[in-house]
Amino acid sequence: TGTIVDYRYHISSQVGIATEPFIAAMHFRFFEPVVLARFSVTAPKGIPLEIATHGLPKDALIKTEDLGSRVRRIWEVRNQPSFKRENDMPPYSHIAPFVEVAPMRTWNQVAAAVAAEIAPNLNLGPDLAAKTAQITNGKTGAAAVQALYNWVSRTITYEPVLMRNYSYAPKSPEQIYAAKVGNALDKPFLLFVMLRQAGFKPQLAYLSDKGDLPFEKDLASLRQLEAAAVLLNVGGRRLTLIPLNNTRRWRETPSWLQGVRGLVVYGPDQGKLIENPLSPARRESEIDRFKLSLSSKGTLKGTETIFPLGEDQAWWRAMKDWKKQDVENAMQQLVYGIHPGARLLGYSIDNLNDPTKNIVTRVSFSADNYALTASGNYLAFRMPWTSNSAADVGRPSRQEPMFWWRRSEDRKEISVSLPKGWMIYYTPPPADLKGPGASYRASYTLRAGALDYSSESLRDGVQVSPAEYSRYKAYREAVARYSEKWIVLKKTHVSGRKAAKKVHSGFPKD
Questions:
Q1: What percent of the chain has a predicted confidence (pLDDT) above 90?
Q2: Averaged over 245-252, what is the pLDDT?
Q3: Who's near 165: CB < 8 A, 6+ residues apart?
Q4: What is the pLDDT of residue 503?
Q5: Mean pLDDT of all residues in 61-81
Q6: Chain-centre distance for alpha carbon 278
């Protein structure tokens, strides 16, 4: 307050090849209030421009100036309030008003320019041709595709350099193979060429980045695209192969490339715009299975088995490069999430270095004083890893949507052996809750000497609008309240069959 800040910057770039055309964009609202935001683009009169605008206020000033042989286009927006920072906001580029400008072209022209750069590099040298034959020897169909994907993913180190920061024309396969390094274009391109060598008919596509400006189909420019993907039909399935980090299996897509648009730049349907869909929630899931026992002193002991897929599996597979002590520390931290007094008894991670199989993690632990006691006649506890916080909906309202990069599914199956001489006194009733783009179900089942629990938390939508926020808030609060309910055991010598008849479906009146 009481100060004036005058800030400006100038960007100059030289276009080297036709596949790196001019494009310019500017946002008009920020995380600080702004008195004036001004954007101008000057171009020769002979170069028509395509202009995309989104969310500009009605009082925005838009004008054109004739400069003789050139034309200057100007956009001005005044007195824009700041964005308030909220949790789980969409990427900034998705909510801010913007103008984007590029030379007028068609997507067919764009794809043709890329194809011309790619064509000289489609033939493999003798070393790579022999390597392709070796990898696919005795394999056909999906098995051959997976083998080639795994080899590229594992052998070529990924450098997280996007196309706009380097080049839209890939290096030759021999250069990539010799360097053993590739970026978001080179690694998929190498897989594309090796698949062609193996007799497949793949497509090479360039995809937009979900974190960037929303894709504008009427603005035909490569500069909207950031990473390459290989598209292929195998055995009646449509595959999108993106071999970047070596932590993902061949059918898993990074979340920043899910639900985005793209362009086929080589192969069948060259010049066609495509959509790379969001992965189904079941492909972005984690299943936790517990086999536990509870003692009369309140000690919980047993094993958790974790079956992750998608981003969760990629997180686990990254442990293949960790030090042993770091892995052990992570496992101890995991069981501490169950109970602060929990002790790690052992662990194993299956298929950590085998990208052809899903990871399975097993952790055994013991937690003293897990169940609370009262008067020596009651034990109360909650199922481990079932708590749900409502911290993400703590705000009474929102100005911007809530946003998630991917769908997700979380399932838990827990079986707890009960101590002898104790009966179930109370278990929470079943839950079946629904909110915008989300659902939650949970239930308890009593069987001889044990209590089973199952739940499914599904997020099938990836955005909640401010108008839907109150319903989503109520849903998340209901889930959190349910997860806080206790299971109560009562000391008795009644047999298990008779004890089952004494289960309360709600809190006891006494």
A1: 86
A2: 93
A3: none
A4: 46
A5: 95
A6: 9
Q: Is residue 217 helix, strand or coil?
A: coil
Burial (0-12, 13-18, 19+ Cβ within 10 Å), 402:
buried
Q: Residue type for 343, please? A: R
The H or E element spanning position 239 is: strand 237-241
In terms of Cα–Cα distance, which of 48, 47, 96, 56 is closest to 75?
56
Q: Any bridge partners for residue 378, and if so which?
A: 374, 490
**Dist CA 466 CA 401 (whole Å):** 5
Tokens of 453: 């629990």
- Phi, psi values for residue 501, rounded to 5°: -75, -15
Residue range 483-495, pLDDT digits in tens? 999 999 999 864 4
Contact 290, 296 (CB under 8 A): no
Spatial neighbors of 446 by CB under 8 A, at least 6 apart, are 424, 427, 452, 500, 503
Distance CA 444, CA 429 (A): 7
The token duo for 34 is 């702004």
Return the CA Rg of the chain.
Answer: 29
What is the rounded distance in angstroms from the CA atom of residue 502 to the CA atom of residue 510? 14
Nearest Cα to 403, choosing from 464, 458, 475, 469?
464
